[in-house]
Amino acid sequence: MQALQQKPLGAMHQVSVIAMLGGECTGKTKLAQSLAHTLKLGYVPETLRLFVGEHQRSPRQDEQEAILMAQCDAIDKALCGLDRAPIGPVLICDTSPWMTAVYSLQYFGDASLFAKAKHLMLDLAETYRFRWRHFHCADDIAWQADGVQRDGPGQRVLSRVLIEQYPPLQGAIGHDRVELLQGGFEQRLTMVRAMLARRCLD
Questions:
Q1: Is 48 part of any domain?
Q2: Do the bridges between strand 131-137 and strand 178-181 make them parallel or antiparallel, or are there none, so unpaired?
Q3: Residue 128 near residue 55 (C-beta atoms within 8 A)
Q4: What pTM was estimated for this model as a whole?
Q5: Does residue 179 or residue 1 have the better pLDDT?
Q6: What per-residue confidence (pLDDT) applies to 2?
Q7: What strand order describes the sheet that includes 178-181?
Q8: Structural domain of residue 186, as residue ranges?
Q9: What is the spatial distance between Cα 81 and Cα 65, in angstroms, rounded to a whole number?
């Protein structure tokens, strides 16, 4: 990620970037796209999904860091394009860069990317003056096959366990909030809207 000039978007406690957590087939993409549409916010797609679509295979271990960097770069570019000082959420990310570190541990036994992800994510937050706000999509919906990207319901259970064991940005005050979303799509959407309406950021 290239060095950026600080571009204040408002008080940090008033501005947030929403990022999705969850294993495969947990409704992250549908929820993120719906939120971006209804809230009229920018949307950053999942780099892993784009990679698989382009290469028609899952990434190797040596490609994990590049995927993490690409996800952060995409968020960087989206934030750089904002020319106003909003209050509340400013961007919807599918998914959080943290998920690349989770997958790296899950599939390759490599936990080294957690430190890298934390550094990159906090650097973005400091540069653009926002708080990360994570929504963890539970694995309580029906699993569906999706070509080469999905490995089965057992893997998404393991993703959930690892997310709970390694919550994003733990210890980074103001950035470590994670909301668990359960139930069907409409129920989850209603939950998120209610949480955002209350502006429960502290």
A1: yes
A2: parallel
A3: no
A4: 0.88
A5: 179
A6: 41
A7: 42-44, 88-93, 15-21, 131-137, 178-181
A8: 16-198
A9: 25
